[in-house]
UniProtKB/TrEMBL annotation, chain A:
It catalyses: [protein]-peptidylproline (omega=180) = [protein]-peptidylproline (omega=0). It comes from Polypterus senegalus. The gene is Fkbp5. This is peptidylprolyl isomerase. Residues 481-490 have a biased composition (Basic residues). Residues 95-183, 210-296 form the PPIase FKBP-type domain. Its EC number is 5.2.1.8. It comes from the Eukaryota. Residues 58-71 have a biased composition (Polar residues). InterPro entries: FKBP4/5/8-like, PPIase_dom_sf, PPIase_FKBP_dom, TPR-like_helical_dom_sf, TPR_rpt. TPR repeats lie at residues 396-429. Residues 1-27, 55-74, 464-490 are annotated as: Disordered. Residues 464-480 have a biased composition (Basic and acidic residues).
UniProtKB/TrEMBL annotation, chain B:
It comes from the Eukaryota. This is GLMN protein. InterPro entries: Glomulin/ALF4, YAP-bd/ALF4/Glomulin. It comes from Polypterus senegalus. Coiled coil: none annotated.
Length: 490, 590
């Protein structure tokens, strides 16, 4: 018999005196597990380092020859032996993105999985239930650079269910884990909001757009606390309470009772303007500590009556316009975005609401296009305009705004044709006329530039191209189209 | 005639330098060349093309002949075939790869519906040669080629049964096999870049291959039969294709968990509409999840450290996507994925909090739809099995909440009956010594029982329609009254009894009496009509067809049978009801 297995059964037997292992109730484990997680995460490093020092010198009751028992219930379900101590005492926090290398084996020594075989470290977010329980416990106890081996009972891995094709039911698993690095969780793709959870919340529900939240927050900038208060506000409307966008967005990802630190880049803080009342200078990085005390979700749209939906849409439109006028374009987008998903499916359903619904959807799409233009998100602006034009192919505003977006994306011909459409619809539109002039000018400039760049270098190629050009008319439409594509792609 | 014209033009052009050709020359070459080929003068044209003196002309104009050449090759005429293939090879060698590439793609794009597969199989090899010639500049062209080919392939019907796949009448399997050979050198190139640490250079090609794999997953793979067929030596072509696609996906360096969990971990709030979306098409990711968790393809590359609950959560999103579809091939994948995912999850392990996540309630509702409305028998049966598995994974509180929700929304007596059966099972467990819990005994149980022990529309409830529900409710009540002693009253049933009598038993009595009276009258009527109209041909009020076949009109005999069986049903309900009232009476006397 494998030595590990022998000792683990021995250990299980020892435990039977007060806690029969067959009586383990998964719910109980979950409960105690989450209770444990609610303790201050800062306690963990101390615990680890303490035991590390003690190891080998004076074995305590929860230390056997196999190592330290990591389970909150002290049931021996996850035991850790440190193979190589880490650099420092600091351990990752809940939600942190951690980088590890690991190898997993069955008790008979058979390897079932290893990140080394894939040639790159494995990453995950710690302590939020993505990993088998043993892992969330073990990695939370490790410091950077540490290598350890953990022996995990099935209750902390895959339990009695079969994990085909490699792990049979009721398997005890042994992992060797190396903690390479960890860092806060990025909540946005640009890394402008980084979260580190101090205390995990309950359940899986998050406040949705429009939910009412009760929070305690403390904002600081370069070590100076500028804001500390309890506040209630509506998600998407934090702006009205001098709370930066980053906090507003992050709360949507929080659970009830969660307390976290948020690191905000200026884009998600007070931006280029700063905040004079708080004494926050322009372009400052901010740190907020936020506790989500309570929240009430708004109904999901599929739960609403038509009247409720219309009310919501009208209110969102007003709010959006208010933000737009104040130059808060992202906040405006959040408001306008509520309208379309809420109403777009309604169009075909009720005859009586058809007209107002269509008007609201159109105006919110047009407003969104405008916001995206201001935010320089041109492809999004095009997308919104496309939707409008799909519904109403002679919408002057949509065509005009799409033209503007194309122009910014250097698609001069597309822009020009949109502005020309605008003029067809409304010959009085002077702005469109002016834009066409700009387009033509840009096209000329572009040609000049190209000519200059390629003039000498590709003289020969140019001649050849001219020849190809001549050949075009002899073929049908298809190849001509293709040739254009080929220039873009080849 | 055409040949003369062509020869004349060639001779004239032999002495002109490359940049001296006129538009007319191109036109003549194309038209005359085409005509010659159509006149089957393939030998002559081959000579012209191979003539060393004509090299420059062919280099510039040769690709114009691709179209007519390929049409002739597809005719498979024995005498000309060899000539044409030689010409093709020659053109590939001398002409500019860019132009040949466009010419070939054009042929693929323009192929007639019935020639798609044949054209693709024929042209993939030349296409590959040309692409390889492009060297480092090839990634966008590889991408364009793959997307053109896949667009064409997507028009072919996907074989579903084993016979269809073996016949391969529309050539889809053949195309898939050819596609794998086609992509091989590109995949190898990307793979080598990892060993040479030149990954950066390969970013574009890698991306094109990734897009290709993702596209293949939603079509054709999502619609194909991918089960391993036992007793077949060679793997079936579609399954082999799936295996290879997952392989290629891994070669592109994209991590499988990152794809599978993308929908849960994506930081974007609103999906964009550009490249990203195509990369993370919901259908494709769901199909990938099916391949990994049901067919175990790529499982050796999949980390085995994720918690079962997390995998469940992600897969619920995929299952939700698949269940929105109507095709048997997709629905059966949804059910397989659902089943396998549930089997990986420990019973009683999922906490009630998961029911706060929308898909954990929407998927069982979609499942109920399949169980009750899907026209395909085996899917309905499987649906029911999965329904039970799903109930089993939740902890007690989770089960409780799930039952309450489903009773509110299922609107189907059969499903309601099934849930009531489950409630009974849970109460029975809770009443066993040492098993007591807060949800299936005591105060919390009553609100749940109230959803069960009543008649949905009072005495007017259609008893036949609701038979399953009513019988299960009565069974549950009878069980409670016998199992839970009045002095224990662990379930609270005895204190609730007067309400149940008012809301359930009394209206049921009334309902039974009314229905019985109605059906008895109907029975009498029909019998009398039978006597009167024995000989007369009746004109039915309406006709009914099922699956396009008109059902025969009901004969009076059949009508009588139906009415009679309804009467038996009422008797059945009445007997259980009587038994319950008996129990109550006995207890009341004590």
């Amino acid at each position: 018999m494998d030595p590990l297995e022998k000792s683990s059964t021995k250990n299980a037997n020892k435990k039977t005196t007060n806690e029969p292992p067959e009586d383990i109730d998964f719910r109980e484990i979950n409960e105690s597990y989450s209770q444990w997680e609610e303790q201050d995460a800062y306690d963990i490093p101390k615990m680890t380092t303490d035991t590390e020092v003690k190891m080998g010198t004076e074995p305590t009751s929860n230390l056997t020859e196999q190592g330290q028992d990591l389970t909150p219930r002290q049931d021996g379900g996850v035991r850790k032996v440190i193979k190589r101590p880490g650099d420092s005492g600091e351990t990752p926090m809940i939600g942190d993105k951690v980088y590890v290398h690991y190898t997993g084996r069955l008790l008979n020594g058979k390897k079932f999985d290893s990140s080394h075989d894939r040639g790159e470290p494995f990453t995950f977010n710690l302590g939020i239930g993505q990993m088998i329980k043993a892992w969330d416990l073990a990695v939370a106890s490790m410091s950077k650079g540490e290598v350890c081996e953990i022996t995990c009972k099935p209750e902390y891995t895959y339990g009695v269910s079969w994990n085909p094709p490699k792990i049979p039911p009721n398997s005890t698993l042994v992992f060797e884990i190396e903690l390479i690095n960890f860092k806060g969780e990025q909540l946005t793709e640009d890394g402008g909001i980084v979260r580190r959870i101090k205390q995990k919340g309950e359940g899986y529900a998050n406040p949705n757009e429009g939910a009412v939240v009760d929070v305690h927050l403390e904002g600081s900038c370069a070590g100076h606390v500028f804001d500390s208060r309890n506040v209630r506000f509506i998600i998407g409307e934090a702006e009205d309470h001098d709370i930066p966008l980053g906090v507003d967005r992050a709360i949507k990802r929080m659970e009830k009772g969660e307390c976290c630190l948020l690191y905000l880049s200026p884009k998600y803080g007070f931006g280029t303007e700063g905040h004079s009342h708080f004494g926050v200078s322009p372009n400052a990085d901010l740190i907020y500590e936020v506790l989500l005390k309570e929240f009430v979700k708004v109904k999901n749209t599929w739960d609403m009556t038509m009247t409720e939906k219309l009310e919501l849409a009208v209110a969102a439109k007003q709010k959006g316009t208010q933000y737009f006028k104040a130059g808060k374009y992202i906040q405006a987008v959040i408001q306008y975005q509520k309208i379309v998903p809420c109403l777009e499916l309604e169009e075909n359903q009720s005859e009586e609401h058809k007209a107002p619904v269509k008007a609201l959807v159109l105006s919110s799409l047009l407003n969104l296009a405008m916001c995206h233009l201001r935010l320089q998100e041109y492809s999004h602006a095009v997308e919104k305009c496309n939707k409008v034009i799909e519904m109403d192919n002679s919408n002057e505003k949509a065509l005009y705004r799409r033209g503007k977006a194309w122009l910014q994306m250097n698609e001069f011909y597309l822009a020009k044709s949109d502005f020309e459409r605008v003029l067809e619809i409304n010959t009085e539109n002077k702005a469109a006329q002016a834009q066409i002039t700009i387009c033509l000018q840009k096209i000329r400039e572009h040609h000049e530039r190209e000519k200059q760049t390629y003039a000498n270098m590709f003289q020969k190629f140019a001649d050849q191209d001219a020849k190809v050009g001549k050949r075009k008319p002899s073929r049908e439409d298809g190849p001509v189209k293709r040739r254009r594509r080929s220039k873009e792609n080849l | 005639m055409a040949l003369d014209q062509l020869t004349e033009m060639i001779q004239r052009c032999q002495v002109i330098p490359e940049d001296g050709f006129k538009v007319e020359d191109y036109e003549i070459f194309q038209k005359a060349g085409k005509n010659c080929l159509e006149e089957m003068k393939t030998a002559e044209i081959l000579d012209i093309i191979k003539e060393e003196k004509n090299k420059v002309i062919i280099k510039c104009m040769g690709w114009n002949l691709l179209g007519p050449l390929i049409k002739i090759v597809l005719k498979k005429d024995k005498t000309s075939l060899q000539h044409c293939l030689s010409m093709l090879t020659h053109i590939l060698e001398v002409c500019s790869p860019k132009e040949v590439l466009l010419g070939l793609l054009e042929q693929i794009e323009d192929a007639d519906m019935d020639k798609i597969a044949e054209t693709i199989v024929l042209l993939l090899q030349p296409l590959q040669t040309v692409l390889l010639k492009l060297g480092k500049k090839k990634p966008p062209s590889v991408g364009m080629s793959l997307s053109t080919i896949l667009n064409q392939i997507s028009q072919l019907p996907v074989p579903y049964t084993q016979e269809q796949e073996e016949d391969d009448a529309h050539g889809l399997c053949q195309c898939c096999v050819a596609l794998l050979t086609f992509t091989k050198p590109f995949v190898e190139e990307v793979q080598q870049s990892y060993t040479n640490k030149m990954v950066g250079d390969m970013e574009e090609l890698r991306n094109e291959l990734l897009k290709f794999c993702i596209k293949c997953l939603s079509n054709p793979l999502l619609h194909a039969q991918l089960e391993k067929v036992p007793d077949v030596a060679d793997e079936m072509p579609m399954r082999r294709f799936a295996t290879e696609i997952v392989e290629i996906l891994c070669c592109t360096g994209e991590s499988l968990p990152a794809l599978i969990f993308h929908r849960l971990l994506s930081k974007k709030e609103e999906p964009g509409f550009l490249e990203e979306d195509a990369k993370y098409s919901k259908d494709s990711l769901a199909c990938l999840s099916y391949l990994i968790f049901v067919q175990h393809l790529g499982m050796d590359k999949f980390p085995l450290v994720f918690s079962p609950e997390f995998i469940l959560h992600c897969n619920m999103l995929h299952i939700e996507t698949l269940m929105k579809r109507k095709e048997e091939s997709v629905l059966s994948k949804a059910l397989d994925l659902f089943e396998k995912t549930l089997l990986r999850t420990n019973q009683n392990s999922v906490t009630v909090q998961f029911l706060e996540i929308t898909c954990f309630l929407s998927v069982p509702q979609a499942l109920v739809q399949i169980m009750t409305l899907c026209p395909i028998q085996h899917l309905r049966t499987k649906g029911l099995q999965i329904f039970q598995l799903y109930i089993d994974i939740f902890d007690v509180e989770g089960k409780y909440k799930l039952f309450r929700c489903l009773l509110e929304v299922s609107h189907h007596a059969g499903v309601e009956g099934y849930i009531i059966q489950n409630i009974k099972k849970q109460i029975d467990l809770a009443l066993k010594p040492g098993n007591g819990n807060l949800w299936f005994s005591g105060a919390a149980l009553l609100p749940l029982l109230r959803l069960v022990l009543f008649l949905p529309q009072g005495p007017e409830t259609d008893l036949l329609q609701n038979l399953d529900r009513i019988m299960e409710s009565l069974n549950l009540l009878r069980y409670l009254l016998i199992r839970d002693k009045e002095y224990d009253n662990q379930t609270g049933i005895w204190t609730e009894l007067y309400k149940i009598e008012d809301n359930f038993l009394k209206p049921l009595h009334t309902g039974l009496n009314m229905s019985k009276a109605h059906y008895e009258a109907e029975l009498k009527n029909t019998k009398e009509n039978k006597k009167h109209k024995e000989s007369k041909e009746e004109n039915p009020l309406c006709t009914l067809s099922v699956a396009g076949e008109k059902l025969p009109n009901m004969t009076t005999e059949m009508q009588l049978q139906v009415l009679q069986s309804a009467m038996f049903t009422f008797d059945l309900i009445e007997s259980v009801l009587a038994r319950i009232e008996e129990i109550i009476e006995v207890k009341a006397k004590k």
